[in-house]
Amino acid sequence: MSISNRLGSHRMPVVALLILTATLLAGRILQAADVAIVPGDTRGIPRNQWPAIAALRGQPAFMSAVDSAPGLARLKWIAHDKMRKEIVTQLHEHLFTGKAQDSEVAHLIGKEQWDTRQTLLHWAASEGETEIVQFLLSAPGVTANVVDGTHGRAPLHCASRQGQRPTMELLLAARGIQVNARDWKQRTPLHLAVISGQDDAVMALVNADSIDVTAVDEDGKSPLQHAMEGWRRAKPSSARQHIIKVLIRFGAGFGPMSDVTPLYWAVHHDHSDIVELLLKMEGVDVNEGGGNQPLCEAVMQDRPHLVTMLLEHENIDVNAGHPLLLAVQIRHLRIARMLAQHPRLDVTSQGFQQALQMAERYGYTQLVSLMNDRCSRRKLSRSLTSGLFKNPCFSMDSVHDVHRPAQ
Fold first, then answer.
1. How many C-beta atoms surround the C-beta of residue 389 within 10 A?
2. Kind plus residue range of the DSSP H or E element containing 46
3. Model-level pTM?
4. Is residue 86 part of a domain?
């Protein structure tokens, strides 16, 4: 058989081999992974990064890289109306030609109206469009801190308010991100996450570098105050409960000018459910209020239900601030009787003696009887104790043999 006949008989396999080779080469240009590989170059090119794609301009892989950028492809898919299509078309053109100024690209992404209230970047952040946010943040001239014209909010505000943690993570990792940025109401992203009850977003923010958990808005309210008020306004939920716990654990208070503790604030505002929550938390000092004791505040406000909750705490100091004397002075007799019966009440203190004298002067016979009974029981207890340990006639010899230790 001639050589020509042999080649002719294998023409189809050769064609198939050529097709296979072309397919493999094309696969080297664009892969389904997150990088594109250029023929002759082993370096990975990020598929969703504007600068990396632009660097391919003039190379065979450039057109495919532009068209397959996940963020841009997603934008083309969701741009249904004329306004959005125009923005996407311009972005595609700017990336393709590279002739636009950085300021033009930045304006298109961070200032141009994408919907009725938001720019493209703000919208993508609030909707959790991670591929789009990643692509837009890589565009020339774009800053993650750009503010909208509606509320003066940055994209991080929008993502935090909607609880979009994936886009929040991208924004928090962006160069120069201002985690404590203020909107027109002086609210930070943490404020908005708390107000919206987004516990996952709160967790992301409190762990961010340079976060200010005590920042106050134009109303003088910190995130913790909004969290407690939100607990009362909305139906209590595990998410809002978690937010309060997280904020307190990260040192949140009521602003840099306030030393009031969360427990004192809750007592002052008669938030019994929050008081109950705080009393069960580790690290919460039941006696610390920032200048006044929570127990004294409950007495002052005549809130027996809160007094009961506080008195049941194992670490309560029933003598600090003389709450019994305060109760007698302002004639809150029900609370005074509760305090007078507490086992750790110091009946020898000056506050107790003054309260007893005042109760006698006011004619509070039941309270006086109760307080005198406490004094009598203490005297009896001391007398028995003194006799037990100081009586020289008392010795082990006077103890019945059955109680003696075994020899």
1. 8
2. strand 44-46
3. 0.78
4. yes
- β-partners of residue 46 are 35
> Counting beta carbons within 10 angstroms of the beta carbon of residue 385, is it exposed (0 to 12), middle (13 to 18) or buried (19 or more)?
exposed
> Would you give the DSSP letter of residue 148?
P
Residue type, 382: R
Return the SS3 of 45: strand
Task: Show which of 149, 178, 207 is a domain's final residue.
Answer: 178
Helix/strand/coil for 66: helix
Q: Last residue of a domain, which of 178, 209, 241?
A: 178
Most confident of 15-19, 79-83, 306-310, 383-387: 306-310
Q: Is residue 335 part of a domain?
A: yes
Burial class (CB in 10 A: 0-12, 13-18, 19+), 256: exposed
Q: Which distant-in-sequence residues (6+ apart) come within 8 Å of 184 by Cβ?
A: 151, 152
Q: Is the pLDDT of residue 88 over 90?
A: yes
Q: Are strands 35-37 and 44-46 parallel, antiparallel or unpaired?
A: antiparallel
Q: What is the C-alpha separation between 178 and 370, in angstroms, rounded?
A: 61
Residue 365 lies in a domain: yes
Under a CB-based contact definition with an 8 Å cutoff, are residues 246 and 202 in contact?
yes
pLDDT, tens digit (0-9, with 9 covering 90-100), for 122-140: 999 999 999 999 999 999 9
Closest CA to 345 of 323, 367, 363: 323
The b-or-e profile of 7-45 (16+ CB within 10 A means b, else e) is: eeeeeeeeeeeeeeeeeeeeeebbeeeeebbbeeeeeeb
Domain of 136? 69-178
Q: What are 379-407's pLDDT values in tens digits?
A: 655 544 444 444 443 333 433 443 334 43
- Domain at 104, CATH number: 1.25.40.20
Encoded amino acid at 180, one letter = N
